[in-house]
Write a structure and sequence with these properties.
The protein has six helices and twelve strands. It is an alpha+beta fold. The chain has two domains: 98 residues, 3-Layer(bba) Sandwich (FAD/NAD(P)-binding domain), CATH 3.50.50; 133 residues, no CATH class. The strands form four sheets. A six-stranded antiparallel sheet has the order 3-4-5-2-8-9. Strands 1-10 form a two-stranded antiparallel ribbon. β11 and β12 form a beta hairpin. The longest helix is centred in the middle third of the chain and has 20 residues. The mean pLDDT is 91.
Length: 269
């Protein structure tokens, strides 16, 4: 449902709709990843894979936004994709040890904005950049994940980055303090710290102003930005309608929007 924020603007742009806000105002929930290796098997692919959550930091703080901490679905395919490695032997070693890995994530309220557009080859290009608040949020969240993993008994820690930020001497306080300082100063420039997102929002925003919103408040697609006329029979009903990014999982909001737009479709059919 959230992935519609990438597909909907691409479909509209490829179909010739020219409202200037189509594809703009992309908002995400940037997610840092920390993996902990434990002495006893974890096997994150068994049972509820995202069964633990903490809202301790959801309210935000000075210079940063809030975030929710969650256990991640650590099945083999996702770990093979998400965890960094430096060479075939290291990758094989990581995969051989996945029974002992617990991945932790922080779903952050973003600072920053992006856009999507269709390339001349017909592919969707996504550009997104964190601002200073977003960077501070990622760094604060990653340090919280590291602290939690150590407190839970992890014997080894890894922050997903290029190169990987790894600590094997978790029990040594001095080594851990240096590691924590390094995590608090993560490099968020291009192709360094790995940042994931499952929630894309806001690329065909709904609202009352034709100038700034490609859709009206019922999800109808506007013809242009100079008046409030809409394309008859054309609606958007996914996370691309969001006027801005949410600080929570958007699933319920997407469902509510889909229900709202569906009622409009029925009324106008």
């Amino acid at each position: 449902m959230a992935a519609g924020a990438l597909r909907s603007p691409a479909i509209l742009a490829a179909s010739g709709f020219g409202h200037p806000s189509i594809g703009r105002h992309l908002r995400l929930h940037p997610v840092p990843v920390v993996a902990g290796w434990f002495r006893t098997p974890i096997e994150m692919w068994r049972g509820p894979m995202q069964g633990a959550r903490s809202l301790e930091f959801v309210g935000g703080g000075p210079g940063r936004n809030g975030y929710a901490i969650e256990s991640a679905p650590g099945h083999a395919g996702l770990l093979a994709l998400a965890l960094p490695w430096e060479g075939a032997a290291e990758h094989a070693a990581v995969m051989e040890s996945i029974r002992y890995i617990a991945p932790f994530i922080a779903v952050t309220r973003d600072g920053g904005e992006g856009r999507t557009r269709v390339t001349r080859a017909g592919h969707v290009r996504v550009d997104y950049r964190l601002d200073a608040v977003g960077i501070a949020t990622i760094r604060h969240a990653a340090t919280s994940l590291v602290r939690i993993a150590r407190a839970a008994g992890a014997r080894e820690l890894l922050v997903a980055a290029t190169p990987p930020l790894r600590l094997r001497d978790v029990d040594r306080s001095a080594a851990f303090d240096r590691y924590l300082a390094a995590v608090g100063d993560l490099d968020l420039s291009a192709n360094r710290t790995t940042v994931f997102s499952a929630h894309q929002m806001g690329t065909v925003r709904m609202g009352g102003s034709p100038r700034d919103h490609a859709c009206d408040s019922a999800g109808r697609v506007r013809i242009g930005r100079t008046d409030d006329r809409v394309v008859r029979g054309l609606y958007v009903a996914d996370a691309s309608l969001f006027p801005t990014g949410l600080g929570v999982n958007p699933m319920l909001t997407v469902m509510a929007l889909a229900r709202r737009v569906a009622r409009t479709v029925l009324a106008e059919s």
